[in-house]
Design brief:
InterPro entries: DUF1003. This protein has six helices and no strands. By secondary structure, the chain is mainly alpha-helical. It has one domain. Helix 2 crosses helix 6 and helix 3 packs across helix 6. The longest helix has 76 residues. The two termini are 51 Å apart.
Length: 178
């Protein structure tokens, strides 16, 4: 159905360069045009296919840690911790982390030290996904431009053929009158 000469012809005709000078994206687009197949793909699906367990986990941690639910719950836990250790348990002398809440500060520091790099991993992953999406957008845009160029060629050919027929008809009419 599709052969390399067709792709090579498209390369020369539409891009003005031989096939061996094209990059992978351009070749992929020309192959898709020659094979008459779709090239659109979802960047998220492509990224998720190659994602490791750690990458998916970092996305989940960032999604939870960056939500209002987490902020509200975390605030409730912090206020509860402070009230419990300053008002309730201190009356009976059982406060395990009295003011200035040194253990709470240690836990918050530990959480920040662990959570920050995990969120950075998720942001790096999102950046990589954006690069994939940009590459896919380029392919789609290139495909659209090349298809428009092909349509213009076909229209030009149709116009030329129509004009050629009219000229032939006029020539015949002129020959008949002579």
């Amino acid at each position: 159905m599709h052969d390399k000469t067709t792709t090579a012809d498209l390369s020369l005709r539409l891009l003005g360069r031989p096939l061996d000078e094209l990059d992978d994206d351009e070749r992929r687009v020309l192959d898709a045009i020659a094979e008459r197949r779709l090239i659109s793909r979802d960047a998220a699906d492509i990224d998720d296919e190659g994602a490791s367990f750690g990458a998916r986990l970092s996305d989940r941690v960032a999604r939870v840690g960056g939500s209002w639910g987490f902020i509200i719950l975390f605030t409730v836990v912090l206020v509860g911790w402070m009230l419990l250790n300053s008002a309730v348990l201190e009356r009976w002398g059982m406060a395990f982390d009295p003011y200035p809440f040194i253990f709470l500060n240690l836990m918050l520091s530990t959480l920040a030290a662990v959570q920050a790099p995990i969120i950075m991993m998720s942001q790096n992953r999102a950046s990589a996904k954006d690069r994939i999406a940009a590459g896919l957008d380029y392919e789609i845009n290139l495909r659209a431009e090349l298809e428009i160029m092909r349509l213009h060629e076909k229209l030009d050919q149709m116009r030329f053929h129509e004009l050629s027929e009219k000229v032939d008809a006029l020539c015949e009419r002129l020959e008949v009158k002579d």
